[in-house]
Amino acid sequence: MNRAGLVLLSMCCIFLSACAAGEGNGQAEENAMQNGSYEIEELARGSQSRESAERMMVVRDADTFERIWDLSDQRGERPAVDFDQSMVVAIFMGERRTGGYSVQVDEVRQDGDDIMVQVIMEEPGEGCMTTQAITRPFQLVLLPQLDGEVRFQTQQQALDC
């Protein structure tokens, strides 16, 4: 490749890198979206929260996040969240009489002016062996700070054993 071709290739790479970096708040939100869905980062997940009721909520401030983190009964340090750029979705499945249950944020996408959070609630299927202990499954996920009303759509799934 001649020198002019290398210079042109270098300029294209610089231009594409600048485009990918983005500018402004809207660009960060757009970059976080892939295939029409927003990128989800799991902060915590488990089967033993302190919340006995089924709850799904959006956390947009540090004080509320501190209370939700305590409900998740996680040991260790609470993750730092920049609530100017991010928000947390907390899903508590509520109390179950056995093990084998779990909850998962499957997808977050724009739905008109609203944000749709697709939640899968798994339960043990017919014939599954489970622990005989009370469980309270939960998941906390980090999302980009999004405008609009957040709506939750749940899907029940039985596990095949």
Characterize the structure shown.
InterPro entries: PrcB_C_dom. It holds the Pfam family PrcB_C. Keywords: Signal. By secondary structure, this protein is α+β, with helices and mostly antiparallel strands. The protein has 3 helices and 9 strands; from the N terminus they run ααββββαβββββ. It has a 4-stranded antiparallel sheet, with helices on one face. It has a 3-stranded mixed sheet with strand order 6-7-9, with no helix packed on it. A two-stranded antiparallel ribbon has the order 1-2. It is globular and about 45 Å long. The model is unreliable at 3-31 (pLDDT under 50).
Explain briefly what this protein structure is.
By secondary structure, this protein is α+β, with helices and mostly antiparallel strands. It is built from 3 helices and 9 strands, in the order H-H-E-E-E-E-H-E-E-E-E-E. Strand 1 and strand 2 (37-38) form a beta hairpin.
Q: Outline, from the CA principal axes? A: globular
Write the element-wise H/E pattern from the N-terminal end onward: HHEEEEHEEEEE
Oligomer: single chain
Major sheet: 4 strands, antiparallel
Number of strands: 9
Count of the domains: 2
Helix content: 10-25%
Query: Segments where pLDDT lies below 50 for 5+ residues?
Result: 3-31
Nearest-integer average pLDDT = 85
Radius of gyration: 21 Å
Q: If strands are numbered along the chain, what order do they take across the biggest sheet?
A: 3-8-5-4
Distance from N terminus to C terminus (CA atoms, Å) equals 59 Å
Structural class call reads alpha+beta
What is the number of helices? Answer: 3
InterPro entries: PrcB_C_dom
Signal peptide: 1-20
Protein name: PrcB C-terminal domain-containing protein
Pfam families: PrcB_C (PF14343)
